[in-house]
């Protein structure tokens, strides 16, 4: 039996309680922007330098409507945790996309390697923006040999609009479409990665668009907003926000969950609950990081090791099994004579288990 009464809910979230109100009060904490995007011509965009006195800064209040035809450089303010070198800035390609809800959001393509194994669409956590995350993307992408795309939610960084659950879902879809259309990257090369609140749009996109990616990583995920605020909540209320627990079973790709056992923001029980709702054939071995909290998972060596195993072992094995499953449908039934030439299954066991 749920420990919350309707009266409790109404008194806390106002009457009638709305998911957007819960989201605003429990989740969204946009920081002061730590960067700006500056319009530049092709020559200055190529070397990562720009004359800030002669080019306009694009802000969330006045993004260029024709931004698809513009080139930008990213300028980090003093609030940014890391000031990048000119060489590092050349690895960051910023741009704007317009969402289905008519907000223009800031995106970055971080080119970490010339021959990426995969492209990671990273949905970052709360209270940070692209200016604070870009240095992490450069380091992580180089370590995994993957290039990284990311975006700021509506109301974050240089992105237009206001932070809300519906905007968040539109934001990730617009960023995802830009990977497919602007850069012509196939779904088989895309990994969706969500961290903390970023797991919400990640789960939503992966549950709505079948085969949109080759794998999905959920880093410190939450089951729903109400379950974070009230740990005794056992069901999804009509006023609940971010109900990933009710969507995750619809994901049709491999899902890796990473969660710290000492997380005091989103308890590890959320990770357990989500893992148990993933279809068995899509469960990747989770990483429950002993002693890790909510904001220090990346400091543990097992973190990168597990991601490397996902990329180099888990995904290739899943892809091989999928090929083997689909093969009989496209191959005619062998004759009795030909069946004597089939390679025994024992000789291929090492490649499929």
TrEMBL record:
Gene3D superfamilies: alpha/beta hydrolase
Keywords: Cell membrane, Hydrolase, Lipoprotein, Membrane, Palmitate
Keyword Mitochondrion included in the entry's annotation: no
Subcellular localization, as worded in the UniProt entry: Cell membrane; Endomembrane system
Listed InterPro entries: AB_hydrolase_fold, Hydrolase_4
Assigned EC number: 3.1.2.22
This protein's record includes keyword rRNA-binding: no
Signal peptide (UniProt feature, chain positions): none
One Pfam family hit: Hydrolase_4
Membrane topology: Lipid-anchor
Chief location of this protein within or outside the cell: membrane
A Gene Ontology molecular function term of the record: palmitoyl-(protein) hydrolase activity
GO cellular component: endosome membrane; plasma membrane
EC primary class: hydrolase
Ranges of residues in domain Serine aminopeptidase S33: 115-225
Reactions listed under catalytic activity: S-hexadecanoyl-L-cysteinyl-[protein] + H2O = L-cysteinyl-[protein] + hexadecanoate + H(+)
Protein family membership: Belongs to the AB hydrolase superfamily. ABHD17 family.
UniProt name for this protein: palmitoyl-protein hydrolase
Organism listed in the record: Adineta ricciae (Rotifer)
Lineage, broadest ranks: Eukaryota, Metazoa, Spiralia, Gnathifera, Rotifera
């Amino acid at each position: 039996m749920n420990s919350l009464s309707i009266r409790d809910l109404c008194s806390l979230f106002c009457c009638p309680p709305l998911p957007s109100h819960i989201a605003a009060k429990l989740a969204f904490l946009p920081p002061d922007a730590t960067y700006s995007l500056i319009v530049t011509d092709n020559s200055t965009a190529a070397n990562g330098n720009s004359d800030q006195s002669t080019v306009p800064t694009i802000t969330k209040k006045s993004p260029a409507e024709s931004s698809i035809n513009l080139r930008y450089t990213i300028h980090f303010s003093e609030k940014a945790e890391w000031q990048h070198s000119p060489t590092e800035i050349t690895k960051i390609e910023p741009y704007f996309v317009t969402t289905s809800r008519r907000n223009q959001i800031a995106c970055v393509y971080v080119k970490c390697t010339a021959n990426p194994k995969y492209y990671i669409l990273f949905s970052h956590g709360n209270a940070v923006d692209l200016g604070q995350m870009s240095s992490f993307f450069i380091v992580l992408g180089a370590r995994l040999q993957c290039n990284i795309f990311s975006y700021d939610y509506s109301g974050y960084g240089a992105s237009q609009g206001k932070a809300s659950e519906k905007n968040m879902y539109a934001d990730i879809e617009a960023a995802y479409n830009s990977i497919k259309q602007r850069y012509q990257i196939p779904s088989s090369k895309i990994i969706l990665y969500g961290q903390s609140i970023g797991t919400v749009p990640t789960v939503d996109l992966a549950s709505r668009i079948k085969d949109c990616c080759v794998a999905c990583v959920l880093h410190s995920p939450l089951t729903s907003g109400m379950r974070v605020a009230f740990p005794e909540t056992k069901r999804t209320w009509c006023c609940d926000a971010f109900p990933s627990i009710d969507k995750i079973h619809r994901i049709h790709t491999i899902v890796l969950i990473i969660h710290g056992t000492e997380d005091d923001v989103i308890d590890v029980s959320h990770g357990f609950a989500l893992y148990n709702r993933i279809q068995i054939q899509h469960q990747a071995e989770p990483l429950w990081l002993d002693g890790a909290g909510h904001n220090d998972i990346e400091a543990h060596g097992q973190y990168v090791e597990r991601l490397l195993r996902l990329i180099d072992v888990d995904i290739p094995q899943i892809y091989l099994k999928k090929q083997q499953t689909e093969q009989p449908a496209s191959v005619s039934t062998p004759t009795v004579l030909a069946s004597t030439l089939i390679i025994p299954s024992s000789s291929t066991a090492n490649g499929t288990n």
